[in-house]
Amino acid sequence: MNIDRRSGCPINLSLEVFGDRWSLIILRDMIFGGRRHFRELLNFSLEGIASNILADRLKRLMALGLLTKADDPSHKQKAIYSLTEMAITLVPIMAQLGAWGRVWLPVTEELSIRAELLEKGGPPLWEQFMDELRHEHLGAPSRTPPGAPTVRQQLRAAYEAVVERKAEELRHIKTEA
Amino acid sequence: MNIDRRSGCPINLSLEVFGDRWSLIILRDMIFGGRRHFRELLNFSLEGIASNILADRLKRLMALGLLTKADDPSHKQKAIYSLTEMAITLVPIMAQLGAWGRVWLPVTEELSIRAELLEKGGPPLWEQFMDELRHEHLGAPSRTPPGAPTVRQQLRAAYEAVVERKAEELRHIKTEA
DNA sequence: TGCAACTGATTGCAAAATGCAATTGGATTG
DNA sequence: CAATCCAATTGCATTTTGCAATCAGTTGCA
Hints:
The structure is a homodimer. Chain A is mostly helical. The first copy, chain A, has one domain (10-176): Winged helix-like DNA-binding domain superfamily/Winged helix DNA-binding domain (Arc Repressor Mutant, subunit A, Orthogonal Bundle). Chain A contains nine helices and two strands, in the order ααααββααααα. Chain A has a two-stranded antiparallel sheet. In chain A, helix 6 (91-104) runs antiparallel to helix 7 (113-138). Chain A is globular. Chains A and B meet through helix 1, helix 2 and helix 6 of A and helix 1, helix 2 and helix 6 of B. Chain B binds a DNA duplex through helix 3 and helix 4.
């Protein structure tokens, strides 16, 4: 894929992974939105990613070791994408990025709910969320007691409706234009 | 400049600021390398940025409110670039990015020294460093007692020699090729 | 005074990345 | 058996990137 290696600096190498306009968006939707399928990522993308870009980035993220792909047993054509540990440990970066954006950029209030929650919960919440992701994506044993509200539920509750409405609007605009 | 606004999501908006291969590299060199002039950024860039890209990104970062430019009183042509508070508060993101890169990417040991120091020092060290940056770039009063070693000094000590050697090599390769 | 070196850029141009629209071949649903 | 859904792929125009060369003004030095 991309074996630039302009330098061995950690920040530079991280940038060679995320220094584009889509990779981190896809990971955001998988991590926080719980998207696992191509169509989910395509149709519920707030930013309206194109299918060829999505296909390219999924391939790239797999090559980089951030995602894995498996057949969905319920549907022979469906592929299910999973986060690797490498991707799951991006949660703190996402949280910091969200916190910074909330302060300095013209964010929409309704879309900042997740960032706010992550910021308030701090590292302990991030850790719990990462455990949940390990459970969902890597089959690791869950450390959350059954019945207790998951971070995922908290993150989704207020957010999902907004995202789906927005994505709906976006599709509507596209089809009628 | 770039008024995409694909969505008001904090992570997306942050990505619209840093979602390219150079902006954060320039900020890294200003924050951690202490670069303040065009030529410094150009000649001591580990990754070998081109002058037109550098000029473009400096302009863009100014438009976005991350940098300011002032005349250098010692030299009528020299411009001196300063970090704004908006840029200074990127330190935690840089630290997280460096920490993540150190774990998951093929970083060079000698270039990871800074990331390691930031990781070990944790948020308190980041805060001290940010204060130093405010002192240097915004003229804020210094909270470090005079004589005490600054974070900047610790960060640079082991690093600067490496960077300058590398940059030297890079220039050498370019001129002889 | 004259000239080389240095200042922060700008220009021209080729290559690569991006993104939209349409389409593909196979699977599933009704 | 037709319509729909699946994960992509293709074609193509636009945009971005990045290298090389160049620029005009400033400075340092002889």
